[in-house]
């Protein structure tokens, strides 16, 4: 499980409580919500229909499999602060684990600092948010699968939501995490613009997705669809057992990115209704993957064959909506419908 919770309490209920006591806990320095008319990442010069596959600059025509390079970078957001117990406020720092398609034979081992596979072209960017009281580490196999399939995957460690936060994890900081995702997008694009460096000219700048599991799914959902946190650079969202942040922000402003939601039917941490509710409210195109009998964290980390199903369905979804790969929706349907294990509802 992503964290230990009292039986019978849903993820949404606990997040609501955490948000309500944010100022009393003193754990985070939260910025006021922006005006709904001021979404992040608005691009001058016109907009691109978010629901169309492969909108924006061309991505790599090569779907791999690639070797997987790995690099950890520290991004410092000096426009926002974080307060750890017993310490003065400090700039908000996001240690970010980045996996990317690399030169060499494909394998199951990350290659630190390996040369990127630039000869294959530019690659879409996926920002992944971990669950509460963990780190990106448990999700390594899933993130590797995405990088192996031809995506740059950046997974920030949330300052107060991770397992090793000074003074212990503090879930009230979840209200700051959507901005963390947007900041990491900006930092990755800045690295792409550089003349030199590992990530120079590697990213397909118009093809960006957000994803996350549990509280990370809450975070990604807000970045993609909550008008208070909306980042218009996001072209697709993959929400793994997540829920809505409390409030009235979820109006799914148009144009709304394509959505893939996944949910274990036996999940007692994030009750299935949390996922079904936001999925039902979302506009098309949208997809719902039900993992039959699965719980909260295992199908995204270690449980087989569920993890393999999640890998194949998410890769096919990202292939279609970020790369425009032919027949990817057919592959998605094939992987997502497994008797007794998974069922995929499609509304493309």
Provide the number of structural domains: 1
Show unreliable segments.
Answer: 1-10, 16-50, 55-60
| H/I helix tally | 8
Mean pLDDT: 86
Instruction: Quickly give the structural class.
Output: alpha/beta
Quick overview:
The protein is of the alpha/beta class and 348 residues long. The chain has helices spanning 11-20, 22-25, 140-148, 177-193, 215-225, 272-281, 306-323, 328-336, and strands spanning 67-82, 90-102, 111-112, 123-129, 152-156, 203-213, 234-240, 259-264, 286-291, 342-347.
Topology:
Layout: H1 11-20, H2 22-25, E1 67-82, E2 90-102, E3 111-112, E4 123-129, H3 140-148, E5 152-156, H4 177-193, E6 203-213, H5 215-225, E7 234-240, E8 259-264, H6 272-281, E9 286-291, H7 306-323, H8 328-336, E10 342-347
Parallel strand pairs: 1-3, 4-5, 4-6, 6-7, 7-8, 8-9
Antiparallel strand pairs: 1-2, 2-5, 9-10
Helix pairs in contact: 4-5, 7-8
């Amino acid at each position: 499980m992503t964290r230990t919770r009292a039986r019978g309490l849903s993820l949404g209920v606990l997040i609501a409580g955490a948000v309500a006591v944010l100022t009393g806990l003193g754990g985070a320095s939260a910025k006021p919500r922006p005006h709904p008319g001021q979404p992040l990442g608005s691009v001058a010069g016109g907009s691109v229909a978010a629901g169309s596959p492969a909108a924006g600059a061309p991505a790599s025509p090569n779907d791999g499999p690639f070797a997987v390079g790995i690099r950890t970078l520290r991004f410092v957001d000096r426009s926002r602060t974080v307060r750890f117990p017993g310490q003065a406020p400090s700039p908000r720092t996001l240690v970010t684990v980045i996996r990317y398609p690399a030169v060499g034979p494909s394998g199951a081992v990350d290659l630190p600092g390996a040369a990127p596979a630039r000869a294959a072209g530019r690659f879409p960017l996926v920002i992944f948010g971990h669950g509460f009281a963990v780190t990106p580490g448990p999700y390594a196999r899933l993130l590797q699968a995405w990088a192996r399939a031809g995506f740059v995957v950046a997974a920030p460690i949330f300052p107060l939501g991770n397992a090793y936060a000074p003074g212990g994890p503090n879930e009230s900081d979840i209200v700051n995490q959507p901005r963390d995702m947007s900041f990491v997008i900006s930092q990755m694009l800045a690295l792409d613009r550089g003349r030199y460096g590992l990530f120079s000219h590697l990213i397909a700048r118009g093809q960006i997705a957000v994803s996350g599991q549990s509280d990370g799914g809450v975070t990604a959902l807000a970045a993609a669809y909550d008008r208070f946190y909306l980042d218009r650079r996001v072209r697709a969202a993959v929400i793994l057992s997540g829920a809505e942040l409390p409030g009235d922000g979820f109006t799914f402003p148009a144009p709304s990115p394509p959505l893939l939601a996944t949910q274990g039917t036996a999940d007692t941490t994030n009750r299935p209704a949390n996922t079904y509710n936001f999925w039902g409210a979302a506009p098309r195109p949208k997809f719902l993957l039900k993992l039959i009998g699965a719980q909260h964290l295992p199908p995204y980390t270690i449980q087989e064959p569920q993890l393999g199903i999640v890998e194949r369905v998410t890769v096919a979804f990202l292939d279609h909506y970020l790369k425009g790969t032919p027949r990817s929706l057919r592959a998605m349907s094939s992987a997502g419908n497994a008797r007794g294990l998974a069922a995929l509802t499609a509304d493309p």
